[in-house]
Amino acid sequence: MAGTLRVPLILCIKRVCMFSVGMPNLLSYAVLSILTMSGQSGIVGRSPSFSVAAILFDDKALAKPHDVELQGNLVFVPGKGGSIAIIEVTDPAKPHILWYRQEQRQLRDAETVLPLGDYLLLGTNDLISIDIRNQRAPRFCKTVSDRTRISRINGMVKRGGYVFAAGKDGWINVFDVNNPGSPILVGARNTRGSEELSSPHDIDVYGDYIVVVDPAGFGRRNLPGKVGIYRVAHPVTCELIPAMDWEQVGVLANYDLVGANRVQVAGTYAFVAGSRSDKSPKFVVVDISDPARPAQAAALSFSDSRGPNGLTIAGSVLFLAGGQTIEAVDITNPTKPVKLAVYKCLQAFPSGRDSAHDLVYRAGYLYVTGQNDNCLCILRTNDNRILELAKVEKE
What we know:
The protein is built from one helix and 30 strands. By secondary structure, it is mainly beta. The N and C termini lie far apart (50 Å).
């Protein structure tokens, strides 16, 4: 199928069929290549800061896609509809699916991935290790299940030989991944039972600490969102402390943090995306230089009524995704963040609902999942200031 559409852009839509090694069926997907386009930056009256390089739609391989990660020329996308896909992006304008699996039962709530070289960790209601040395025929190695302690894994981060996982049902899990093909559950902290955090949604490392966010019902309950900080390693030996002995050294709770579902640490700051639809959603900067006294350093309203769901940092630029919108924020001075660009991408997220979800940046391109449109959108960065700031290495 081929054609053009003016709205006010011209799209060339190609229906492509490809055979995936190890899969019995043909995969059918659409790649939208943008020929000409007039977009909106939302900041200044000039050509848009971003433009669409490609959009990949697939209802099976990208079934309600959630997280997205890059390793080499491969993009890994899990889907809450029970899918996991590997997409080759050597040419970001011509992405193609190398392999996917959709199993609505076994892979239900596939929400996050963590590439570890030859292996990929997939977070669902279990932790699944996948051997990806043959990218066209990955091999499922081990599934770690524990229905009392592991469920709805929504964020993961690696520290040394361990991976910490945030589960939305109230658990923080610790897995030994020294052998990534055979991870072992070595600890679990019940944050809901201890009334510390009701629903951990994401996690990052800060030295001997982990930083965890809790959205407090995304505005459905009249409760403040939270950022919790736990000491997880001994201050002298740096060895891992048993989860039952972790100390929640600090917590920040306020209504700007409602919907807090993504966190990334850079320097002495935690950057938090707060997705909510009842009021103006926020991006919040938290000073964690003193883990016992985390303090809000700044907050900016997000430009869409939904989101931000996704957050990633490249150099001194922070990118946000939510609804139908992508934002770029200058965090050179974290206490005074400045919006560089706002880009609404209607062709990638036509559902108009809470679609743009997670994103990752590399070498001038943003890779964004569309959760309610079953797509991966690849955006080209056109703004020279963003390109330069994204190269800066933060100390």
